[in-house]
């Protein structure tokens, strides 16, 4: 298949069968190749197109900008414990000083004192605060997290993710994305 205009800058927004994005942060996007494959496998409906096309000697197709899954994918109720999801839960802010620079994660009850690597014991922390707290308990060093660590729901992460819209939003996506302007990153 030859390409008339490079479509690499044409990602496809993927919506669930209920017309909501599968994920807000990161935004659920497919490459144009994955979107076209899903169209041919009859797994999606095309909602909107770009003005760009892909062509072969016997075939021509406009690139999809928004697709909707034909089968509803039930979102997981319990998100995976990952460094990224901890940062997203904590809104990419150090829970001790509020900075957004040099984020790491900190065990509120240090591992050296029996603390586990769980949602309820880990918070986002900048490197200077993490080093200052070290292996101390919060009461020993006067460093308490701004919010107690907790296991977020997928809804919590989606809500927080909407506070950080991506740098690029195609016009055809805007009717399906709900960025909360009242939340400040």
Automatic annotation (TrEMBL):
Top-level taxon in the UniProt lineage: Bacteria
Molecular functions (GO terms): endonuclease activity
Keyword Transferase: no
Ranges where the HNH nuclease domain occurs: 81-131
InterPro entries: HNH, HNH_nuc, NA-targeting_endonuclease
Keywords of the record: Endonuclease, Hydrolase, Nuclease
Any Pfam family the entry gives: HNH
Keyword set includes Nuclease: yes
Entry protein name: HNH endonuclease
């Amino acid at each position: 298949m030859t390409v008339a205009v490079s479509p690499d800058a044409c990602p496809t927004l993927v919506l669930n069968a209920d017309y909501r994005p599968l994920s807000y942060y990161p935004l659920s996007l497919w490459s144009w190749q994955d979107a076209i494959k899903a169209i041919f496998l009859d797994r999606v409906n095309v909602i909107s197109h770009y003005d760009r096309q892909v062509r072969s000697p016997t075939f021509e197709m406009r690139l999809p900008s928004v697709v909707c899954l034909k089968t509803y994918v039930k979102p997981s109720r319990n998100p995976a414990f990952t460094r990224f999801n901890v940062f997203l839960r904590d809104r990419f802010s150090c829970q001790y000083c509020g900075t957004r620079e040099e984020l790491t994660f900190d065990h509120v009850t240090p591992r050296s004192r029996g603390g586990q690597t769980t949602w309820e014991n880990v918070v986002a922390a900048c490197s200077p605060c993490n080093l200052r707290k070290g292996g101390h308990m919060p009461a020993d060093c006067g460093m308490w997290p701004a919010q107690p660590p907790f296991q977020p729901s997928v809804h919590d992460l989606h809500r927080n993710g909407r506070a950080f819209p991506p740098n690029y939003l195609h016009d055809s996506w805007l009717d399906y994305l709900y960025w909360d302007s009242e939340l400040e990153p």
